[in-house]
Protein 1
Amino acid sequence: MLDIGEWSRALRGELYERWPKDENGEPEEPVRLGTAMNLNLFDELTVNMLEACGIPCLRVDPGDGSFGRLIFGMSGQGTDIYVPKSMAEDAAALCTYQGEYEPEV
């Protein structure tokens, strides 16, 4: 599970503006959609498809992935993709057809 402090720091700028808010004006809880690998640009394709359908995405590189992305331009452990809880079912339905990974939602 993504720590609240970790995802709230990552949720900034334009993504923060687009992320759904709860009744108190706080960002809605993110739900992990799954892990997409970087080698075939599947992570970028997945995020771009979801964003094009109006579903904001938060990307988190697990483990030492941020260091790998900095040095190699990609995370060797893939990228965890998070979406707003209220949009998780739609995001999972959009991603299921691709067959690369099974969304965890």
Protein 2
Amino acid sequence: MKLRWDQLGRHAREPLLPVYAVFGDETLLQQEAADLLRRAARAQGYSEREVHHAERGMDWNELMAGLNTLSLFGDRKIVEVRFAGKPDTAAAAALEKYAGNPSPDTLLLLLLPKLDGTAQKAKWFVACENVGVSLQLPVIDASTLPDWLSARLQQAGLRTDPEGFALLRERVEGNLLAAQQEIEKLKLVAVDGLLTADTVRATVGDSARYNVYDIADCALAGDAVKAARMLNGLRAEGESESSVLWALGKDARTLAALREGADAGQPVNALMQQNGIWQKRQGLFQRALQRTPASAARQLADEVLAADMAIKGQSAESGWDVLLRIAMLLAGRPLFGARP
């Protein structure tokens, strides 16, 4: 069965199933899901625990045989397998076979990274889901972080003023582990449960993490200030200029193509489909298109080429400077006037 994150707590109070596949890239949520399942399993008599790390060359037949073997004391056990990537051919075959006849005395907990739609249709995944549970962890991005952070603060018995909340959000964005750790620290220093901006500023370090997809979405959404902050954060974290250009350049070229097609009288919806824009990002591109004149679209194309030359050392410009110009153009806040 498929399970949502918000259903896990209630589900864990019922008799547990033989196999659980927990997948997603949010480390904190994966840890919390695994902890909850372990506690529930111990309460239901699973007193032993084994932990395995899926590695190249691992003997999956031996591991699967061990799943069906009782411990020396006849206790029920949790067998936890942690994956760095999706299961390889040997792992997939072993998991599919085991799911066809799982041990009644073993709870198999699979901790996996994010799996795409194709991986979720694989035989091993479907077999595990049929006999157990698949739990896709939610993605906490810039749009969902405020609600998540508000809920966590409320759980901790904390409340903030608007300035304090905005500052906390800015300093932990993209890093849920740091967010939870900072909330635990803030519980110790908050006066009567109230967090002011001064308290947050004095207590919380800047732990924000961003990825190249975040900055592209932020720029398209028109938030120039945040996009600039993200770009500085990526630079400080050692992200390569080429990776950032890949994300910004792809969206810049797409926006330029939309502008050209729209100016030629083509329907915007058809242009979205022709350019392979996902449904959830179409709103971003529609808003960006409305504020991007043809001159800015042409400048975007020029700046992508300029960034590529700068990164390759073929011009005297800094690649990061050109990337900033691209981000600001996408956000509708060009650093310089659009070229005629």
